[in-house]
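re: ur msg from earlier - yeah i can do the glutamic acid complex, just paste it... oh wait u already did. ok heres what im feeding in:
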Amino acid sequence: MSNVRVRIAPSPSGFLHIGTAKMAVFNWLFARQQGGTFILRLEDTDIERSSDEFAHAMCEGFHWLGIDWDEGPPFGDVPAKGEYGPYRQSERIPLYQQEAARLLDEGKAYKCFCTKEELDAERERARAEKRPPRYNGKCRDLTPEEIAAKGDAPYSIRFKIEEGVTEIDDLVQGTVRTNNSEFDDFIIQKPNGYPTFHLAVVVDDGMMKISHILRGDDHLTNATRHVLLFKALGYPVPAFAHLPMVLDENRKKYSKRLRGANVLDWRTDGYLPEAIFNYVVLLGWTPGDDRELFTKEELIECFDINRLGQSAARFDMKKVQWLNGQHIRRLSVEELQDRVLPILRDAGFDVDSKPPEWLWKMTHICQEKIKTLNEIVPYTDFFFQEITEYEEKAVRKQWEKEDAPARMRRIRQAFEETEPWTLDNLKASFERMTEETGENQGAFIHPTRLALTGKSVGPGLFELTELLGKEACLARMDQAIEYVNQLGVHQT
Ligand code: GLU
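and the outut:
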């Protein structure tokens, strides 16, 4: 194991957001590449907003994406792991209190007795005078006697910001220098004894020996305060990389309300975790050439932390779909079958009465075509149910023609004569028709597809025809001929 220790520290106050997933993916990749340790920590001190249900949903999201952690809280069958636990902040309160007390003892923090009313009034005054709202330092220099005189009055603990300049060499943002005077003495422990985010995150990162913090650039302004706390507590300061957030197709922050904000939406919509993992990586990293399609293993191999991008990438649905299709093609037929059969069962189709070789072929003929797993349903429903309607637009195009009835009869005849019912013989039958009429194959293929499937798109025609079987094909041709006759278009 190397000394690389990275973490993802979500607050379980909702589902696993695509933006959090992106941060997790980069931390995970970096850990796996460096032979380091990837840690999952739940920042659940906001009791009102956190819940076990959300924690579970988040872990499930990670699980689906294939992001496993080396240290973290228990989840389902996965036991708690790691020597630096507990990995839920709500179980670490005494540790934060101990560290806050240490800062108090060392004079690096102080008790603040200002009441909420006083602080609100002060903030109001600052607003009226158009000053930035900052703590006025009233309790900074209380004497021990003054403090003793407060008795049992509730207090918060504030961190003393010392004068100076703090520099962060961010792996993505470059060197960020901030004058400490931009910050006021901030609260690290609330009157109820709970830590604020700043204290908890730094104590955790310090005690868990985190070496690199890769997180969203919405935390860049927090980083100065964190560095000051790391130093005050005597922990080594980790390296930082603040990564751009995920933007939606309109270049706005990817709203929680948008479809796809929840990582598990992608699962519901028939995307492969491999594809979402791949896509999320492309949102913040480029390999330096024009490759876009990667497996996890390939990414572990070629990921380079120094090539993380600084600008936020816009979400591109077309690209995700394309990538998903590419990942579908990369599966073995058996793997794809394992993923699509449950979807067909859920759709109510009796897949289990079909022979295994038939199911294999059915999957195979769709593999090159579908962009999402869910598309397996419209691509194969006609195998499992009779045709009850024909696509309107296709009917107009293929059948509302004078010669349609004759053409359909001719195709039926060709089917009738195809013996044995094999892919090659079917192809040969269609070739014969085109040779005899001088028309192109499309003139026969499209109306046949409509008759057999009710649609204008689907798997390759000869392949699906072979799989449907002669009897079903003849019956569907008969049904279509009747339908076309009833259209009664310009028949002479
Ligand atoms: N709970 C914080 C978040 O989800 C973690 C911040 C950090 O990574 O330091 O944004």
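cool cool. The longest helix spans residues 470-487. ping me if u need the other ligands too
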